[in-house]
Design a protein that fits this description.
Elements: E1 3-10, E2 14-16, H1 23-26, H2 35-38, H3 40-45, E3 47-53, H4 54-65, E4 81-84, E5 97-100, H5 104-115, E6 119-124, H6 126-134, E7 140-146, E8 154-155, E9 167-174, E10 178-184
Parallel strand pairs: 1-6, 1-7, 3-4, 3-6, 4-5
Antiparallel strand pairs: 2-8, 7-10, 9-10
This protein binds NADP nicotinamide-adenine-dinucleotide phosphate.
């Protein structure tokens, strides 16, 4: 069982702009990374539990589940999904959503149990993933890098991870725009912040 952060980011390390827009990503198409041939569905088959913060959850409600300008879509994940928030959040019919707050450690234990040997996917944002890393609970960072920069926005992983550095495990070009890198997180020896 691995705990993996899988996301797309700009070359300068942002996963959304300062208005939580992903237009920079979706300009490459509805399937920006070319999901069909990048192994994302293989990745998802190995995922047994999902976690995200409330901004990401709200983005999914606004853009996927209940968009104002397009037909609504069902919640996309069959795996149980933990949404971290200190506030009451709207629910989605038919979705296995579990709401959590505070210390990520007991939540991670619940997720691992629910995943039943499959992986835990941390969707984001970056600080939430950092909270898992703070407790040595992050195993892999998989990032599809888009050939754009934003200058500011939601950071990919706002932590200082220097020694030991991440270990490069895979690099792959996706079409003529993206490159996907997979890093393994080495066991932490310092505080990492
Ligand atoms: N490029 C991509 O593929 C990709 C992937 C994922 C996300 N995104 C985008 O990136 C942006 C990320 O937004 P973000 O940086 O604000 O991160 P986020 O993790 O989505 O949301 C952060 C919020 O989650 C809640 N939270 C986090 N940890 C918590 C904890 N331990 N206990 C309780 N609540 C906690 C807090 O909000 P409250 O307590 O106030 O609710 C916090 O302000 C979003 O726009 C998202 O759509 C992009």
């Amino acid at each position: 069982m691995k705990t993996q952060y899988y996301t797309a980011a700009t070359l300068d390390g942002f996963i959304a702009d300062e208005h939580n827009s992903l237009d920079w990503l979706f300009q490459f198409g509805a399937d920006p990374e070319g999901v069909g041939d990048t192994g994302f569905s293989d990745f998802m088959r190995e995922v047994g539990a999902v976690a995200m913060g409330s901004t990401t959850y709200q983005w999914m409600l606004d853009h996927e589940v209940r968009p104002q300008d397009r037909p609504a879509k069902p919640w996309p994940y069959t795996q149980p999904t933990w949404v971290f928030s200190s506030r009451e959040q709207p629910r989605v019919d038919g979705a296995d959503l579990r709401f959590a707050r505070g210390d990520v450690r007991p939540v991670h234990a619940e997720m691992a149990a629910a995943a039943g040997g499959r992986n835990v996917w941390l969707v984001g944002g970056g600080d939430l993933v950092g909270q898992f890393h703070d407790h040595g609970l992050l195993n892999e960072v998989i990032v599809s890098i888009a050939p754009v920069t934003l200058g500011r926005g939601a950071p990919l992983l706002p932590r200082r991870i220097t020694t030991p550095p991440l270990r490069l495990r895979e690099v792959r070009g996706l079409g003529d725009a993206f490159v996907r890198i997979r890093y393994e997180v080495a066991k932490k020896t310092g505080t990492g912040r």
